[in-house]
Amino acid sequence: MYRLSVVGLCSLALLVWAGALGAADDVADERREQYELMKLFVESFQQIESNYVTEVDRRELMEAAIRGMIRHLDQYSSYMTPGDVERFTQVVDQEFGGIGIHVNFQTGVLRVLSPLPGSPAAKAGIRSGDAILEVDGESVENFDVLSDAVKRIQGPIGRPVRLKVLHEGERRESEEITVVREVIQVPTIHGFRLNEDKQWNFMYSDEEEIGYIHLAHFSQRTSEELRTTLHELVDQGMNGLILDLRSNPGGLLDAAIEICDLFLKSGNIVSVQGRNVAHQSWDANEEGTLPEFPMAILVNRYSASASEVVSAALQDNQRAVVVGERTWGKGSVQNMIRLEEGNSQLKLTMATYHRPSGVNIHRMNAAGDEDDWGVRPDEGLEHRFDRRQFSQWVTAMRRREILRENAGETSTDGGNFVDTQLNAALDYVRNRIASE
Fold this sequence. Notes:
6-stranded antiparallel beta sheet; globular
């Protein structure tokens, strides 16, 4: 009995599809083009299956084709095989941990956007900008997408993961770092100085009454933590604020919206737009808005996602100036799409964040430096760190965390490092205070 091959079935389906083309004249040309492209795919599949030097697995060949399409789109979309879906379900159902880093996978490089302060990764010496070359001895060049790398780094709590790391700003050889996985629950806001009781002092300067808050990432607790701290600073007579979002990789959009609403009485915060996604937009409400005071936001090239939403919203609404470097440009929304009745899944970028001005925050694959994406510092307030300065800044930030965790000295001056970005933000706030 004759048995149709996979390719034969595909060809049969295409013939049926082609026969229906004449039913709608207004879309006939588009459908015909789709048919020709699908015919090209089927013919290529058939040639590889029939004539490649060694026998190939049809399933593996099809999954490789899907991954190839996904890689062409962006680094945030991915395909989950049935095995991937099963492991994902196990992670959800069981207690699995991580090492506390936010990473990005682009052009074959697994880059650390930020280690969470106090996390196993930060304690082990992993820094913003580091390149992870290997995970448990396997080169990241073997990973197809970001989710593959994340899966390898995550795992059971208490078990170690070995990483080969190349620190940004250093020309020495890479080093192997072993990090033990934990449940990651760390505070999201930090001050500049420590009190004698090892608690953060959120006043950069008591004499000038300028507040300083470093926001590490956006979690469910972040907006409430920030609201409480800001009200305490206002009660202490704060005259101005530095909100430090440098190397903040983002997090929950809801938290970003709630934080913007603390500072804005009215105006748009952010909108989500996609080709086949209903347009959504969030506006500020006057209720609960803090008193207005001079404000500067610090960002760098590793500030991404929710941190870009906050800095763009406050910049466009002229509530704060942005100081530092152009941000990462990650403003995309991914949805999980069930395939094969849920046995496999597609994580697909469906929409992007747009700032109040209407500009897309997300940097598309084809975008260049001259295009609009991310958040740029205000005119005259761009201060880019070179590699040496960036490395010194990372060391100074890590030093504060180490001092907070250990008994003894409370100085967080960071040695001889001069933070030109912070100084520029302070100068702006001081000048605004003096002029009022």
